[in-house]
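Tutorial, part two.
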Amino acid sequence: MEQHLTTLRDRFKLALLPSVVLGVITNVYVGAIIIYAGIPLLLLSPLVGTLIFIAVYFALKRSMMPSKLGFFIGVITIMIEVCIHSIAFGWNTGFYFYLFLLPLVFLLESNWKIWTIIFFNVSIFGTIFALNFFLSDSPNPELLSQNDLGFLAYSNGFVTCLIAVSVIIYGSRTSYKRDQLLFKIISDLETSNNQIAQQHDHQKILLKEIHHRVKNNLQIISSLLSLQTRMLDDDHVIGVLNESRNRVEAIALIHKKLYQDEQGGNSVDFNSYLEDFIVKEKMLNPKINFILNAEALILHLDIAVPLGLIVSELITNSVKHAFKDVEEPQVSLELIQLGDKFELWVRDNGVGLPNGFDINTEGLGLGADIIVALSEQIDSELQYYNINGASCKIVFQNKALE
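Running the prediction step on this input gives:
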């Protein structure tokens, strides 16, 4: 693929190389005319031009100079040679025909800046106009006979046409190859994209299967804990096992949301998670009024699991300790966004928190330790208030979703 793209980027250089070769051949032709005319000193023009073209050819071949620089060196060389030969043999010999070949090569590159296009065209046609202005009415130097001058004019016209046809054919062939190359690149990209899409779909299926199996395994653990509680008489142990089961089910619910997610990634619709969590709590505690007010929020798995467990612990604490002698118990959850942060409020209308309550105090129990540890894990702020009952505010940031 990279090789194909490099070829497309270097197509102007590939077109320049045969053009430079044609320049060398043309200089050999001009040198033969000069030898025939018997002007040895004038041989310096095609000789120097040939050496310049050869140097440009090898510099381009070895990528020692930019293609556009090589082109403009060739343009300047041709313009100087045309001026010298037109002055030596006269306007009517048609050496200026060669200047009309330059736009053909120029147009093989489509990425010229506008000022370059203007400068190029002004230079070419300005040179032709100047030669015509100064030489068209001047008598031809008597270096060749009139018949030879006429033949030279036809010969220059023929060579110019031959080179023009060669450039056009080569340009068409290059364009055809370029189009074929583009089709191949597009085909390769489509194949690669299809392969990537298939791999992505396969990974999504595998990831969903993993989350599904994790959820099933957690459900098995929850069922085992439930069975264990039925075989016990100690209320304290039963309570501990039920709390553990609630934690396992909170994690299982997260993984259920993950494998139900159509995107198949590591993100959780936390609003939907809270809705399902509230439905489960209402079934377990029908006397308590649960209220949810949450904005739509997609959380990264690394944030969703700890936050889900924190919510589970807070609601468990409210259900266990808050509603003694409360006629209409109520638990509310509110999730709001404030800039790049989020606030999750868990409130109850129970007896409230003890005076001087501090969640970091040792000996409050496993639930408090879990809340503190998980809040530190997601780098959140945890604050407690007594506002017509106990209120807890968790301030956190989401993790960038992949």
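Residues 379 and 396 are 7 Å apart (CA to CA). In part three we will examine how such features are distributed along the chain.
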